[in-house]
């Protein structure tokens, strides 16, 4: 399964936002999308589209005016990667069949392909994993397979 640019960029931007809030002394300064765009090398107009969706899903709060920008709507530890990916309308599906629960499969006659259950379960596993990973986990480096944090390596 391939995660699209939309989902990857949204996660990159949210991790950047969480990091900036963590290193900011008061933790309450809004971060501009222009700053995130420059650090992550993502188009500003693309980020604006993504953050509009993230705001609609209550993952970020916006502040207008001088010093305006975005803040996380909840703690980094309470924001999962799956929440972010789903907020930007990226379904975590690995099959080419119709949506979940649909009896229509991907074959010409509407049957499900022989490997349908394999790919559907893989999609569930990916969703489960991304649901278990928070922004705080990504920032702390707790994702390394050897269990070491990024600082210890």
Question: Summarize this, please?
Answer:
This protein has about 150 residues and is mainly alpha-helical. Helices cover about 45% and strands about 5% of the residues. About 25% of the residues are buried.
Briefly note the CATH topology name of one domain.
Arc Repressor Mutant, subunit A
Count of strand segments: 2
Q: Could you give me the name of the CATH homologous superfamily of one domain?
A: Winged helix-like DNA-binding domain superfamily/Winged helix DNA-binding domain
Apparent shape: elongated
Mean of residue pLDDT? 83
Explain what the structure shows.
The protein is mainly α. The chain has a domain at 5-91 and 135-140: Arc Repressor Mutant, subunit A (Orthogonal Bundle). 46% of the residues lie in helices and 5% in strands. The chain is built from 6 helices and 2 strands, in the order αααββααα. Strands 1-2 form a two-stranded antiparallel ribbon. α1 packs across α2. The protein is elongated.
Give a topology summary.
Blueprint: H1 5-23, H2 33-40, H3 44-56, E1 60-63, E2 69-72, H4 81-87, H5 116-132, H6 135-140
Antiparallel strand pairs: 1-2
Helix pairs in contact: 1-2, 1-3, 1-4
Task: Give me some keywords for this one.
Arc Repressor Mutant, subunit A; 6 helices; 153 residues; mainly alpha; two-stranded antiparallel sheet; disordered C terminus
